[in-house]
Specification:
The chain is an alpha/beta fold. 47% of the residues lie in helices and 15% in strands. Helix 6 links the parallel strand 5 and strand 6.
Length: 278
């Protein structure tokens, strides 16, 4: 099947009211698990990597693997570059053929975020790709020296202007989720999500999806989220499978990990309502 863009997948999700899963991968076992899950569920899916994950897998090796797997799938698959902070890395992904990129300007001021996002939007759009931006800040990512950043909730009053001025095609919002593992039960601000949805018509993105309850996911999707990012739940499933029998050979452990990641991805696709959409 031909390679899809995230814009195409999210346009369908927007029209039909489901959530499209985005899954980060760093090796062939992860990518195989995602594609098999999508094929078996007959579900559109988005796969990719992030700037912070390139320490685990070289971009020049990983990018062709992602693109080839997506093109060979039996269902629509898009390839996306997640959390990225540098123009250089974004341009590498665009030149490689990624259909979308995320510029994370959440550590900048509002005006600086708009300024830098608008510059990247021009480059992405000129190459036929879409741009995801973040307004507010979803906590949990390393900010240097091992410090985990906290949340800054998205201001609904700024959302419309931000999208208009930045040229963003997809907007990642902060409504109470965090990246990585939750230390306490998340409390999502669904009223804030509704207020953002009322002002912004482009697809909305939920980062920090791992660890949410099934009802949390369904409520967010019902409230307008169209792309749901998942990573920690996947690698946790893989690690759990490996720990069950450490006496196995390395290749057998890989097989166990891949099966666990496949099962975790299938569960998410069904919760998001994207199964049987193709």
């Amino acid at each position: 099947m031909a390679l899809y863009t995230m814009a195409e997948i999210l346009a369908d999700a927007q029209k039909r009211g489901y959530g499209a899963g985005f899954f980060n991968g760093v090796n062939q076992e992860m990518i195989r698990a995602y594609i098999r899950a999508a094929n078996d569920c007959r579900s559109p899916i988005i796969i990719g990597t992030a700037e912070g994950l390139l320490k685990y897998s070289d971009f020049d090796w990983l990018a062709p693997l992602l693109l080839d797997a997506a093109a060979r799938a039996k269902v629509p698959v898009a390839v996306h570059l997640d959390h990225t902070y540098t123009y250089k890395t974004i341009m590498r992904a665009l030149r490689a053929g990624f259909g979308s990129v995320m510029y994370d300007g959440s550590l900048l001021s509002y005006e600086e975020n708009i300024r830098d996002s608008a510059e990247i939007a021009k480059a992405a759009h000129a190459m036929g790709a879409g741009l995801e931006c973040e307004l507010g800040k979803v906590g949990g990512l390393d900010e240097g020296e091992g410090v985990k950043g906290g949340n800054i909730y998205t201001d609904p009053g700024e959302a419309f202007e931000f999208v208009e001025r930045s040229g963003a095609d997809f907007l990642a919002v902060s409504i109470g989720t965090v990246h990585g593992e939750y230390r306490e039960t998340p409390r999502l601000d669904l009223a804030r999500l509704a207020a953002i949805r009322a002002k912004v018509k482009c697809p909305l993105v939920l980062h920090g999806g791992s660890g949410l309850s099934d009802d949390d996911f369904r409520n967010c999707i019902q409230g307008g989220i169209r792309k749901v990012n998942i990573y920690t739940d996947i690698i946790t499933a893989a690690a759990g499978a490996i720990r069950k029998d450490t006496s196995l050979a390395y290749t057998d452990l890989n097989e166990k990990a891949e099966q666990a990641m496949y099962e975790a991805a299938v569960k998410k696709l069904r919760i998001f309502g994207s199964d049987n959409k193709y």
